[in-house]
Amino acid sequence: MLPTEDAKPVVLLLGEVVLAQAEWNALRAIAELRQVNHGTRDQFLNDCRNRVYDGIQAISRTYDSTQITGRFDNELVDALPSSLKFISHNGAGYDSIDASACAVRGISVSNTPGAVDACSADTAMFLILGALRRIHIPYTALRAGRWRGKMGLTHEPEGKMLGILGMGGIGTAVARRAQPFGLHLQYHNRSCVPESKNLTGANYVSFEELLRTSDIISVHLPLNASTRGLISYNEFAMMKDGVVIVNTARGSIVDENALFDALESGKVWGAGLDVHEHEPEIHPGLVNNENCVLLPHVGTATVETQRKMEILVIENVRSALERGCLLTPVVETRKIMNGTNGCDI
Question: Which of 279, 290, 322, 334 is catalytic?
Fold first, then answer.
């Protein structure tokens, strides 16, 4: 919804802007800014139903604001004010929003693709190398005064086949970083990536071929109904003995019970996880397995990336108010307004 001559449009911030305060405050020239940075889901739902937020035209939503509102599921989306037309979400993954429910309501949703590619790919490479070298064992032994501990010989990346599951922006960035290490590259995606975007010449293969022939598998898929639990017992059985698996996407894509069993049997040599199926709770078997390199979902936790993400969220809000469209709309809500709600960046 575009501003009227009578009043500025109203934008609701859920959470905090930390690194792009100047850019956020600059929106005051075109909008009234409101904020919710504490409370509970029940309080937020009640406020929505009691029309506290009537007139809100756009929501700027941080990843951590899920702790306040809970997931933007069908119940919450139904309670949002009828005036709301845009949700600008801070995160590349947007599984905390039911985008299909938003589309039914005529609410356009954006995320932050591109902004997270480099940082997430760096984290994936860190975990690939760490899992190959079983870095947890000597790292913890040294700090405990046991020098190398029970470390044995490990593996290096050169000459191995890296299977990239999901060749979007992050998967492509991983391929570019992996190539100088001498890794061979293959990928599976919903569709074959055009040659102009496949800068490393990675080979497109089927899902099953990737599982059967990769020495290392790195997961870079969105979480949705078709990817939840995608890698489980049957998929691990297809993999090479001694495979390494890395997940920096979403924890629920990998069945952690199946992963634990595969680690215990030796089917999986090592795992590197930045995301977890039931985070912040971590599978105790993985915590106790020395062949796992575990991080607490910190793949995008750098000053540089967080600022880029915040600025893109703000740019989406500005575009929504000034042009009536979002810069980076998610696929589920791309065709709400006149066949498309995407603006050129």
Answer: 279
